[in-house]
Structures are given as structure tokens and as C-alpha cells.
UniProtKB/TrEMBL annotation, chain A:
Residues 3-267 form the Aldehyde oxidase/xanthine dehydrogenase second molybdopterin binding domain. This is Aldehyde oxidase. Coiled coil: none annotated. Pfam families: MoCoBD_2. It comes from Rhizobium loti. One of its GO terms (molecular function) is oxidoreductase activity.
Length: 334, 160
């Protein structure tokens, strides 16, 4: 009886969003009379940072500071349609819709500015600080504040735009069965090191080293935040979480946080996160969906590490001490 | 059901309410007093989201009857910022990105505040121990541990 060490590796290829039915999301953008911009969505920010990212995307597209953008989310009664915040699709789908809406709003904004400055709209550019300048003659400029006032009270224009992102549904080809389930994939690779006590079946994850390829990190700190949390969740899925250990008999199922286990602050593995940025072709400013993907590779990596440590393949999650001991017993019997 | 009077100070101001006997402090704070910073996660003492400080001690408000709090001084996360200025502990949660959905955050901050009040320079193990009654679904805990250690450093620099 001993503590045995093992190391496992796993790599994943993870689609952003889903294709069944086309996966649409819409967005609306409009300016207030003082030149702030409002993004209306029915996508949800549940802590992953949707509001911040959509504000950044809208600000970048229109050419204003991020704090000039307000994002309203999550009301499906009043907001433009969104399929939902799941499948790592929020940034990619809603972000693309916001870009399209913001471009349309920007065009109206430049047209109003052009009338005020008596130039051609195509000769104008934004400085990212809230001003519109004549290209090559920056002394000739107007603030977006004044443009919005003019649009609202003088020119009778609505500085607004509509955005829609829809990947048409892909059906399998009759002959080959080939189809295109997604247009954008994130990738990850994890190496996990574990210790397995072959007497108790207990697994301790010592280290998890993750590399994530997530397209452009639109907000690097928030991406890191997702990845750190996701890596922890992956270990939690691999070793702890289940409501129904004896499915379908729920008699011994977890009913509360005393029984539904997750690693606590004292159970953390040494975690390393490396981000590779390879901008995606169809993502907003090159983004992909890091959300769900980041909690996946740890699971097969831990399973492989357990195999490396004690020679048993556990193919049912979570990898509980009981499952390991049963497998060890079966192995010894053979 | 007969109402019972209860009086305590909440974040420095006097509160007096008539409540149903048996009301938890969590429900009294949220529904009667209107302080929604303590969160109801499990209502049975296992998640820590409802943590408040009563007379300097960390307590689970979901397991505390409001009527037992007569004459006490209660602190919640909503009482920490002074005049809109965040305390170093709150600032540290922002700076280390220790919040995602934020549901656990008020409880975490309460637990961390009691730790730092008693142990201004805690070790990592002491931080882990202090947070171990609080569940977070989002962050993986490491950013929260870093927030508390960062706040401890900020406090000791201010003191120096
Ligand atoms: S609500 Fe009090 S411990 Fe969960
Ligand atoms: S930030 Fe969501 S539970 Fe902790």
C-alpha cells in the first residue's frame, strides 16, 4: 500500500457556440442626447463579464472611451433576441452583433458630424476620446457630445444601429455526412500531476498546467479570471461533483453543500495558465469562446494521471475513491 | 403570529423593527431593514454567503435568529465603504479580479475582515482557513486568497 504518483495529459478542440438552428443573436445600439451609447441585448451577464466586453467592443467600433457605453442585458421581454448565454457563445455571437449595430450607429454619427462641419462623412475619423476630426486637418473637429445634441435637437436623426449575427444552419451532406458544426474553435492542453493513495483511493491533484488558445483576449485579466476558475472547475468535475452517485437511485445523492462536493480553498492544485492568442477569422476583434472550454481538458488529464499512477482506467465521473478502489480490486482479481 | 421587537445597530446606525418570532437575521436584514448585502445561498449554514459580523465575530445570519440580536452591533459588507470610498479589502477584491458573479463576495469579505481584524498579517494557510466556510462557484478561490493577502499588505503599509 502506497501513495503513487502519476502524470496525465489531454488536449481538446472546443467549438464556440452551436449550430443547430443557426444560433442567432441580435443587438441594438443607440446614442443618448449627450453622446453616450447604449447597447441593448437580451444576453446575460452571469459573472463572466459580458457587460464589460460588450462595452469594449461597442466603444472600439464607434470610437469612444469604454466608459461612454452602457450595456443593458438579460431582459427577453424588451431586448433584441439572443439564443442565450451558453456554449461559450456570448462574446462571439453577441460581440459580432454589437459590432454590426455599432457600425451602423457610427455611420449616422459621422453623417451628422459631416453636416455640422460641412465636410464629407468619409473624410472624418474618431480619436477614441470622444471627438470626431477631419482626416489630415485635426484642428477641424467636433465632440461626439455636440454631434449627439445636434442629431437629437436640430437634425432629427437617430444615431442608432441594428446588429445581427447568424451562422446559417449547416445540414449534413447526404453522400458523405460531412457538415460544419461550428466556424470557430478554441483549443487547450492540460498536464495534471496527481497522487493516488492505493489504500484509500483518494486522489490529490498536485499541479495542473494549462495552455489555452482562445483567439484574441479582449480583456486579458478577465480571460485569466475565467481560465483560473475554469481550471478549478475541471478538477472539481473530474474528482468531486455529482448529484447522483448511484443513479437512478437517489437515496445517497448529494442534497446540499455538505454532500455535493467541490474543492475548497484548502484543496487547490498548483495551477498554471498560459494563454495563446490566435485571432479567429469570424470572431469580434478575433475573439473565440473561452468559457466552457476551459473547464474540460483537466478531466481527461486527471483520468490519465490516475491511470499512470495506479494502472486503472476510470471511465465514469467523478473519479471517486470508491471507483478507484473497485477498479483496483478488479485489477488484482484478474 | 405575535410580533417581537428587535433593536440593534447596523453599520453604526440604530435599527428597530417588529418581526415575526423565529425570523432569521438574514431575512430580517434583507426583507425588513433592506440591507441585501448578505446573500441567502443555502439557508442552512453550509455556504457562508450570508456571513455578517456581530459584536466583532463572524456569524452566519441564516442560522441566527434576529430576536437574539437585541443590543448587538452588526456589520455587513454594505457598511464598509465610507462616503463611497472602498476599504482596502474591497479594493483588493477588485484589483485581483476576485469576483465574478459576486454572490459569494459579501460573505467572503466578512470572513476576510474578521481575519484581518484579528490577524493583520496572516499567512496563506491562515487565509485559507478563514475562507474555508465560504463557497465560491466561480473563481476557483485563488484570486480571493490573493485579494486577502493583498489587502493585508496594503493595511500593513498604511500602518507603517
Ligand atoms: S445562507 Fe447562510 S450559510 Fe448559506
Ligand atoms: S464569484 Fe460567483 S460565487 Fe464567488
Amino acid at each position: 500500500m502506497a501513495i503513487r504518483r502519476g502524470r496525465g495529459v489531454a488536449a481538446i478542440n472546443y467549438p464556440t457556440g452551436m449550430n443547430l438552428g443557426g444560433d442567432p443573436t441580435q443587438a441594438l445600439v443607440h446614442s443618448t442626447p449627450t453622446g453616450n451609447f447604449m447597447v441593448t441585448l437580451s444576453s446575460v451577464d452571469l459573472g463572466q463579464g459580458m457587460k464589460q466586453i460588450m462595452a469594449q467592443i461597442c466603444a472600439e467600433t464607434i470610437g469612444v472611451p469604454t466608459d461612454r457605453v452602457v450595456v443593458d442585458t438579460a431582459d427577453t421581454d424588451t431586448g433584441p433576441h439572443c439564443m442565450g448565454t451558453f456554449a461559450s457563445r456570448g462574446t462571439h455571437r453577441a460581440g459580432n452583433a454589437v459590432i454590426q449595430a455599432a457600425k451602423e450607429a457610427r455611420q449616422v454619427m459621422l453623417e451628422v458630424a459631416a453636416e455640422e462641419l460641412e465636410v464629407n462623412a468619409s473624410d472624418l475619423e474618431t480619436d477614441g476620446q470622444g471627438n470626431i476630426l477631419v482626416k489630415g486637418a485635426p484642428q477641424k473637429s467636433i465632440s461626439i457630445f455636440d454631434v449627439a445634441l445636434s442629431a437629437h435637437f436640430k437634425r432629427g436623426r437617430s444615431i442608432s444601429g441594428r446588429g445581427m449575427f447568424l451562422i446559417p444552419r449547416s445540414y449534413p451532406e447526404k453522400e458523405t455526412g460531412a457538415m460544419k458544426p461550428s466556424t470557430c474553435y478554441a483549443h487547450a492542453c492540460t498536464v495534471a500531476e496527481v497522487e493516488v493513495d492505493d489504500e484509500t483511493g483518494e486522489v490529490t491533484v498536485l499541479t495542473v498546467k494549462n495552455v489555452f488558445e482562445i483567439g484574441r483576449a479582449l480583456n486579458p485579466k478577465m480571460v485569466e479570471q475565467q481560465l483560473v476558475g475554469g481550471s478549478w472547475m475541471g478538477i472539481s468535475h473530474a474528482l468531486y461533483e455529482t448529484t447522483e452517485p448511484y443513479y437512478p437511485n437517489r437515496d445517497h445523492g448529494g442534497t446540499d453543500f455538505n454532500q455535493y462536493l467541490m474543492p475548497g480553498p484548502g484543496d487547490l492544485a498548483e495551477t498554471e495558465i498560459i494563454v495563446l492568442e490566435r485571432p479567429s477569422a469570424d470572431g469580434p476583434y478575433g475573439a473565440k469562446g473561452p468559457g466552457e472550454m476551459c473547464a474540460n481538458p483537466q478531466i481527461p488529464a486527471v483520468a490519465n494521471a490516475v491511470f499512470d499512477a495506479v494502472g486503472v482506467r476510470i471511465d465514469t465521473l467523478p473519479i471517486t475513491p470508491e471507483r478507484i478502489l473497485r477498479a483496483l480490486k478488479a485489477q488484482a482479481a484478474n | 403570529m405575535a410580533k417581537v421587537p428587535v433593536q440593534f445597530t447596523l453599520n453604526g446606525s440604530e435599527k428597530a423593527e417588529f418581526i415575526d418570532s423565529g425570523t432569521t437575521l438574514l431575512n430580517a436584514l434583507r426583507d425588513k431593514v433592506g440591507d441585501t448585502s448578505p446573500k441567502g445561498g443555502c439557508h442552512q449554514g453550509t455556504c457562508g454567503a450570508c456571513s455578517v459580523i456581530i459584536d466583532g465575530e463572524l456569524r452566519l445570519s441564516c442560522l441566527t435568529l434576529a430576536e437574539t440580536c437585541n443590543g448587538t452591533a452588526i456589520t455587513t459588507t454594505s457598511g464598509l465603504a465610507e462616503g463611497g470610498v472602498l476599504q482596502p479589502l474591497q479594493r483588493a477584491f477588485l484589483d485581483t479580479f476576485a469576483t465574478q458573479c459576486g454572490f459569494c463576495t459579501p460573505g467572503m469579505i466578512m470572513a476576510a475582515k474578521v481575519l484581518l481584524d484579528h490577524t493583520p498579517n496572516p499567512s496563506r494557510d491562515e487565509v485559507v482557513e478563514a475562507l474555508s466556510g465560504n463557497i465560491c462557484r466561480c473563481t476557483g478561490y485563488e484570486p480571493i486568497i490573493q485579494a486577502v493577502l493583498t489587502a493585508a499588505r496594503a493595511n500593513s503599509q498604511n500602518a507603517a
